Amino acid sequence: MVKAGGYANRLAWVDLANKKVDYQELDEDVARKYLGGRGLGVKLVYDKVKPGTDPFSPDNILVIAVGPLTGTLTPMSGRICSITKSPLTGGVTDSHAGGWAGAALKWSGFDAIILQNKSDKPVYLVAKDGKVTFEDASQLWGKDLFTTTRMLRDKYGDARELTKLGSTGVQVYAIGPAGENLCREACIGHDAGRFSGRGGTGAVMGSKKVKALVIMGEEKNIPKPANPEKFEEARRTALKHITESPVTSPGKGGLSVYGTSVLVNTVNELGAFPTRNAKQVQFEFAYFISGENQRGTILRETPTCHACPVHCKRLTEVTDGKYKYKSEGVEYETCWSLGAMVGVGHIEGAGYLNYLANYYGLDTISLGVTLATACEATEKGYIPEAEGVKFGDVDKLAEFIKKIALREGIGNLFAEGGYRAAQALGDVDLSITVKKQGIPAYDPRGLRGFIIGYATSNRGACHLRGYTPASEIMGIPYKTDPLALEGKVDLTIMLQNMFAALDSLDICKFSSFAYTVEDYAALLSGMTGWDVSPEEFMKIGERVWNLERYFNQLNGFDRKDDMLPKRLVVEPPTSGPAKGWRLGWDTFNKLLDEYYEKRGWTKDGKVPEKKLRELGII
Amino acid sequence: MVKAGGYANRLAWVDLANKKVDYQELDEDVARKYLGGRGLGVKLVYDKVKPGTDPFSPDNILVIAVGPLTGTLTPMSGRICSITKSPLTGGVTDSHAGGWAGAALKWSGFDAIILQNKSDKPVYLVAKDGKVTFEDASQLWGKDLFTTTRMLRDKYGDARELTKLGSTGVQVYAIGPAGENLCREACIGHDAGRFSGRGGTGAVMGSKKVKALVIMGEEKNIPKPANPEKFEEARRTALKHITESPVTSPGKGGLSVYGTSVLVNTVNELGAFPTRNAKQVQFEFAYFISGENQRGTILRETPTCHACPVHCKRLTEVTDGKYKYKSEGVEYETCWSLGAMVGVGHIEGAGYLNYLANYYGLDTISLGVTLATACEATEKGYIPEAEGVKFGDVDKLAEFIKKIALREGIGNLFAEGGYRAAQALGDVDLSITVKKQGIPAYDPRGLRGFIIGYATSNRGACHLRGYTPASEIMGIPYKTDPLALEGKVDLTIMLQNMFAALDSLDICKFSSFAYTVEDYAALLSGMTGWDVSPEEFMKIGERVWNLERYFNQLNGFDRKDDMLPKRLVVEPPTSGPAKGWRLGWDTFNKLLDEYYEKRGWTKDGKVPEKKLRELGII
After folding, report:
1. Measured between alpha carbons, how far is A135 from B483 in angstroms, rounded to an integer?
2. What are phi and psi of B433, to 5 degrees?
3. Number of Cβ atoms within 10 Å of the Cβ of B121
4. N or C terminus: which one in chain A shows less Cβ crowding within 10 Å?
5. Which residues of chain A have a CB within 8 Å of the CB of B319?
6. pLDDT by 10-residue block (mean), chain B, 618 residues
7. Any bridge partners for residue B362, and if so which?
8. How many domains does chain B have?
9. Looking at the complex, does the CB of residue A520 fall below 8 Å from at least one CB of chain B?
10. Which of B397, B414, B438 is the last residue of a domain?
């Protein structure tokens, strides 16, 4: 395994209670089995966090990691991730963000920084040149993500800036007030614009009294490929694939021109755009929150991430009026979660709510689903109107977000997440969640790969575990009918394994719209000097998936947790291609049986010892 | 009376049949009695157009006029107007536009150009240096207003440009396809951004086969004040008043910062914002079409008019997507007419419909009211759904606008205006009009000055005849309660007279938010050398008002035409400050009695000979 500069593959074990850091070199065996990023993080959480540990206890750990390809010349390799035992789901979670923090972490000499125990006072950490140091964060505690980021960038900004060759500048990976207040849907924000959103990683960071990680990368630590020729060939091939893809092609592909929210109109037409807490599957104002309309009205810039020619990011701005803001976004998921799902059909309104989520440090997806639950609960009279919130009412929604982030009034209940709030209000079916985590922007009644995809996702409802719409909408890697059930289990398992490996590299998932499995294996081999076949690459993914499942299992998870929210199973869509269609529990259970069998698991969804041994997990 | 350059006060009588122009100097007696602009135009229409004349017959005339203050250094003096017998109402109409066309006409040496008879082939006219010439318009006929304007500016653009001292550049005052097709709600557009909108003046221009008037003004013809000292003092006072007004103050006042659409939120809160064909009086999406939101999202520039520091104009743009456009607007009236009135709660949608209206040359106010009639007629089943149109559906509304402008399918019926269409469909109450002209953006149930204001307006429903909200909202010239009926007749009569005089000057009506009657009289006196008292100024307004009324009377108008649409009289608002209140016909008729009495008219609303003699009309 090649070293990146002097400190490559270094892990920093940060003891927050005793303000000590132990450095350790990553074991090559572990690296080849789990790569880095998600895989490494899950392995460390599995090794260190005993079953039954409260996610907010000092005994939980928060792993901030990158992978063997992060920060290299691999196109789209600018990812950072956080892995921990989730305070939202109770299982293991990993959550990734783009930008430059990933590259910076690698260039500062680290593959992972592991937060252990808990500080008595607010601190922030600085990672630079193979060292992690502690700093007093009392001036930052309570500050929003924009201010926090600005203050830290200003303080360390005399370092060489991003645009100067040989440095990643000052990168900030921090929490907002929501994380400090242990909101179970709090995220970690990188430069207040890219987010490790899901699973409540921000709340775990908050529980450890860590406000931020400041990362400064330097040229001397840039990873150099073990096999430069092989790597360069693989890199060129990957770049060619990006350029040729109708999705990612720079300046031409939908993702490049309109950002992720290019999907709004397509998914809405497919009748798979959950609207007003998924009571509908099509939103009458979808166009107005779409990437096309966003580009025409409030788009100001299209920033990008480390080594990425796609530029799918958006910077939008409303320069005046009640919803004045400037922020990255509005991403597809957020156009939906803080748009259609809460009945907001104005891009300036959804943009403003997105800004507030970023300001307080809340995962926009989970937040939107939680707000939708609150809206329906208000409609149904479970919450008094004066305290409640209303579909489509941007002002009330904005107020409710603040209440959640600061745990004010009824916000204190919803800060526990929509599932726990609905449970407390006595009607858990108001919560459109799997494993207590809100669904993302695809309704499995219209895009049916996600029926089994959502239900079996180890981190709770998720589109990024196995992105079946790639097949159903774009025909990648092969075309399937969005409304078909047949073949979706195989597709899901293949994608779940592939994405688990990909998250361990750790590079952007959008690469999968262009790269082949061969590309990933070749890039990894070129960089590390290992000879990783496509089959081994996929096996790594299967290993990570099964380890996650096993960790959850040790924490009490089984078949009962692989459930879709009732609405998606029993309520037929009222419009769109799937109008009138009802999944039903029987069909759902048959799909689950098929999935368990193909995974080699027991009928109640447990990973047998045989499987764990086969994959070298135990 | 002072001459502006060599040709001041010149009238050009353009015989379109024989392609001859007669020039005449304006009689000083007529000028002192009617000033110019609206007053002069009405006088000429009264003199030349016999009762019973079909507005589309060659015997109708179209007067394009400016007034004694237009194009001078008087702040806000950039107005041009068209006066004719309206094909929409059948009475006399005048309609004003801002920009530079007014100044240009004055600087080209004219106070009025009068189009007589009808050309056999499409022509356009060029006014320059005291001469009007005819040009072949066959290349322009059928072209939209943007293209027409661009082609003509390109052709004559080698003349000195606007920004060069001593020239007004090339100003275009033209009609679009709607005017050519005799749509009764067609307007005349100045530079495709400012419009003589109301009353169908564009259709009269189209009936005469005149596509455009190209105007080039020159320094040597700039009007010089007869009494420079008096004029300069009056000008400074007026400018001071503009600067001190919280409405007009440059860069500070609401009109300057947010444009006319600053009114959206205020009027909506007052429950006076007719929504979905006035079925409601408040629009749930008002904020999103307001000036505040417009400024924050799609505003690109704030252009202005000749000699105006207020800059209330907006240039907005949607740069991509389905509703891509660039156009002036969206003015308050249009935010409403192509927004709330048709159920469109997205500024990019309303902006796009505004652009289409400007493209085809349709009055946005009348068009919106006509579309709202079509939407309700579709809802009620009077129009088959496939041919009809739907509240809030931007795509269908856009399609319907095209059908109207090009008289395609059902558009042929609605090109006659909403009133005639509703009449043909058998339910005239679907048309929210007075004298067949659509109401503007104020619901008289919430702003009650307009009860009598709309009903008695000589040109049909209109907010610009006597702007009572100035008193009800801004306290100008004194504060009245929006919901009070008492005192509104006196206020209306005073404002109707004042605005008639003001339209004859011809300067911008927004000046009345800052200027006093004394200011107008002083500016007029300083410019002309006459000694016009405030009383004489107001008397001129009363004269113009009565002459209009008398012209209409000769064409069959009386009390029966001073009617509000039924909905506004009998249906109580469902929300807002006036919720549940019903005007009723009795109260309405009492107000009308009071108005007639105070006007010195008969009980059936006729102007008696005595009044005509008293005002020197006959």
Report:
1. 63
2. -135, 160
3. 9
4. C
5. 295-297, 299
6. 56 98 94 97 98 98 97 95 98 97 94 98 96 98 96 78 61 97 98 95 98 92 92 97 94 94 97 98 98 96 93 96 96 98 98 98 98 98 97 98 98 98 98 98 98 98 97 96 98 98 96 96 96 98 98 98 98 98 98 98 98 97
7. B186
8. 3
9. no
10. B438
